[in-house]
Design a protein that fits this description.
Layout lengths: L1 H11 L1 H17 L7 H4 L1 H13 L5 H26 L1 H5 L4 H17 L1 H6 L4 H13 L4 H28 L1 H48 L1
Helix pairs in contact: 1-2, 1-4, 2-5, 4-5, 4-10, 5-9, 5-10, 7-9, 10-11
């Protein structure tokens, strides 16, 4: 990821680089992109961006990390407001059966941990996308969500970006940083691919079942 980001920085420039990273972080939760491509909107993106910032003088790590934190915060705010505005029906329209199972799992996670669920979910690919909406559907107190969202955005968005930066900038922490980030990145990739393939397979199965039902009725 960091190699691709470096190439993009060279060709697009600093401002576009900032905007792309922030937009992907925002869209990961606000637009549900993180369901199928968490490795492009989540941990690997942040860690890779931090690595790139450490390897060039063109990027300011403070600007990058603060922007990521704000984008993460706003993405969850949008998800929360959508859930509060449109209710459970909004979640029911998300993806295939695999995604619906992830939503049920997220609801259980939220009911169990409440305020902390919003913070911890940042580090869990499936929960990061759905917890804000579930919190909105569950009518979580707005100010409680606001505070947990701020803490989560700082811990995840700013934290992982800085982890990537210091992994490259300080040799003494490089090994530990790569191990921690590698775990979250691998989990993101595995979950994203499994969800994408499972949803595609379920949609094809549903389409065949629907076609078969129509043929039976027609016969």
């Amino acid at each position: 990821m960091d190699g691709q980001l470096s190439d993009f920085l060279s060709s697009a420039g600093v401002v576009v680089f900032y905007l792309l990273v922030w937009a992907l972080v925002f869209a990961g939760t606000a637009l549900f992109l993180g369901v199928f491509i968490p490795f492009v909107t989540g941990d690997s993106l942040l860690f890779g961006a931090g690595l790139v910032a450490a390897s060039t003088t063109n990027l300011n790590i403070v600007v990058l990390a603060v922007g990521v934190g704000i984008a993460a915060f706003l993405g969850d705010q949008v998800g929360f407001l959508l859930g509060r505005r449109y209710g459970r029906g909004y979640l029911d329209k998300r993806g295939g059966r695999r995604t619906q199972l992830a939503i049920v799992k997220t609801e259980s996670f939220y009911l169990k941990y409440g305020w902390w669920a919003v913070v911890v979910a940042r580090f869990m690919p499936w929960a990061r996308v759905f917890v804000p909406v579930v919190a909105g559907v569950g009518r979580m107190n707005y100010y409680k969500f606001l505070s947990s969202n701020i803490v989560g955005a700082l811990a995840w968005g700013v934290g992982i970006t800085l982890t990537g930066y210091y992994a490259a900038a300080i040799p003494g922490v490089k090994s530990a940083a790569y191990i921690i980030a590698g775990f979250f990145i691998t989990a993101s990739i595995v979950f994203g691919l499994r969800t994408w393939f499972a949803d595609r397979a379920q949609m094809r199965l549903d389409a065949r079942t629907s076609t078969g039902s129509h043929n039976t009725l027609g016969g």
